[in-house]
Structure of Methyltransferase domain-containing protein:
Amino acid sequence: MTDYIATSNPGFAPYAMEELRRRIPGAKLSGLAPGETFRLSVGGLPNEELIASLRKEEPIFLRHLFPIGSETDISSDPEATAAAMESFVRTLADQIAGRKIAIQVRKSQDSPFPFSSAEGRDAVAPVVRELGGDPVAKDAHWILSVYAAKKSLYIGLSEPKANLSDWPGGAVRFRREEGLISRAAFKLLEAERAFNLPLDGFVNALDLGAAPGGWSSVLLERGVKVTAVDPAEMHPSLEGHPRLRHLRNNAAELSFAPGSFDLLVCDMSWDPHHTCRIVSELAPALTAGGKGIITLKLMYKKPLQTIADLTEEYSEAFDVLKVKQLFHNREEVTLLVRRKP
Ligand SMILES: C[S@@+](CC[C@H](N)C(=O)[O-])C[C@H]1O[C@@H](n2cnc3c(N)ncnc32)[C@H](O)[C@@H]1O
């Protein structure tokens, strides 16, 4: 029987727990870092079955999980902590030998764990090397996850795909690329990966609520032609871009020739029902089968209900392919939709 350490965006653990409770009969859930990290017990459900089911239909709010291979009392003493980590890692000698190992160390704010993430990694890496493993940051065969909570130290070894994300705790980090116009751009970069939707595969995009132009700039970098709609100004660096057309309009007032775009993106910070009406009105501007990436604001009290309602509303014009709270989403989730034929 395996238990897991599970993580969501701050404040959203109750919804991640609710999703798991609905999906896994008999699941037991208990908070570790309030609102963000919790322990999941799934009774007799085999590890592979759980992971296959979660990967097939990813929960919206669960960002990351890893199986607990070792649970020991937490200590504030560096030597005792290093020894506890080392003794578990030595039990994994067979799996580690000749393999690339990512060591990911996290702690809750109230944990007495005596190391930073980097120091924790440095404490474990020599043991991994001694066992014939190659400590790496990316493209690992195995991830060795360490999570230090208030009372216990949890360690586990799993394949990257079994964690739902190969980033520590699912915290996706992008290098701040040169010329990045807004932090909002990270949302589209993350959606591109999370939805496995290379943006350079599109030709003509409609960007609703585009200013100051973070999403538009990502699309332009991918070689896409962009029609940006926003009454607000775009960033001066985008002025005169040969593949960018900026319409300074309210998106509700526009219409386009049928099939003008193969991609619609929408990051309007507005009531999600209004946004849905605007996007659905513009659906014919997309080619049949054209894709949409839409931010859905969670401004009401019951996020799961809001998402269920909006999924139904979007379903009139679109197939809703995925709904995911990305690491870069704050009080929102991101939808991947496809225009119905
Ligand atoms: C969060 S910002 C978008 C950031 C943008 N995605 C980026 O990467 O820079 C939301 C934008 O939506 C625009 N907006 C809100 N309602 C709109 C509407 N009805 N039509 C067009 N733009 C709208 C706002 O003017 C604002 O610039």
